[in-house]
Design a protein that fits this description.
By secondary structure, this protein is mostly helical. It has one domain. It has helices at about 5-35, 40-65, 75-105, 120-145, 150-165, 170-190, 195-210, and strands at about 110, 225-230. It has a two-stranded antiparallel ribbon.
Length: about 230
Amino acid sequence: MSKLKTVALEAVAPVLSFIGLYIAGTLAFGLALGPLLGDRRMLLFVWASFGAAAVANLVCVALFDRFRLHLGILQAPGAIAGGFLKGSLVAIALIAGANALILATTKLRHVAGPGIDWFEVLALFLPAAIHEELVFRGYLLQKPAKLNLIAAVAMTSILFALVHGGNPSVGKIALLNIFLAGVLLALAWVWRRNLWIPIGIHVVWNLFSGPVLGHEVSGLSLPKTLLRTV
C-alpha cells in the first residue's frame, strides 16, 4: 500500500468523518434540546456541541479503531482527578503570571464587579471547555498523531484558532495567542496521554480569566463577573 493511500485511510477519512459527525450531531442535539432551553442560544449551542463531540469521538473510535484507540477520557477516578488537578495548577500559574504582567505593564486595574451566578457560569463554561477538548484534543488530534504528531498538533491548533476567529475583538495577535494555547493544550495531552490535563487547563483558565478576573475570553466579554478589568 502506498504511503499516500495509508495516510488517506488512516488519517484523512477518519478525520473528515469525525468532522461530519460532529457537525451533524450539533444540529441534531440542537433540535432535540431546543424545546428545553428555549431562547438561551449560547447554552443551547454549548450543550448541543458537547453531546455531538462525545458521540463523534465514540463513533469514530468504534468504527475506525474497534475501540483500540484510548483517548484518555475514560479513566479511573484517581486518574481523572489527578489529571484535572495538574491542569488546574498549570492554568492558575499561567493566569497569575499573565494577570500580573497586564497589571504591571498597562493602566488596567481590577475593580469589584456585579458578581456572578456560579450555577449559570458552570452550566456554560464546563461543557464549553470539555467540548472543545473533546473536539480538538480528542479524536481529531489523536488519530492523525499516530502517523505524525507534529503535523497533528499543528493542524488542530490552527483549527482551534480559526473557529475562534469569528468572535468579537479577535485580531491577529489574539488569533496567534489562541493558536499557541492550542499547542499548549495539545502538548498537555502528549505529556501524560490524559485528556483531563488539558481539560483542567481549559476549564480553569476560562473560569478565572473571564468570570473571576473580568478579562475577555477568546474575544468575548461577560456582562457579569466577580471583578471587572478597567
